[in-house]
Amino acid sequence: MSLNLEKYQALATLLELLRADATTTGLDASALRQRLTSVQQLFRQEIVPLTNEDSRVQSYRTEISKQLRLLEIDVMFFQGARQASTAQARLQTISDRLTTLIQYCNAIMQQQAEGEK
């Protein structure tokens, strides 16, 4: 497995953990924010510096960056939710966005695995 593939796998794993947290009832908003920060750090430190990727992977990476910024806003809205129904709706939005991010990581990993053949 290539080093790039391992980095995207690590990102996907963190995203899946974050999604599992977001679907847990009684979730602490600060814990969710903390997990998000670790995901963003991994993305910035390990994935952004990657240079030997084709244009399709770079497009996915750009989309991941955008979705992570939107996810940060979603988490802020969740933190500000005052009613249980609003908080639940925000968690659903967060979960949906995380699913999208995981799909992007999987698409990149699949493409890179095919490129290694």
From TrEMBL:
NCBIfam families, sorted: het_cyst_PatD
Protein name stated in the entry: Heterocyst frequency control protein PatD
Source organism (scientific name): Komarekiella delphini-convector SJRDD-AB1
InterPro entries in the record: PatD-like
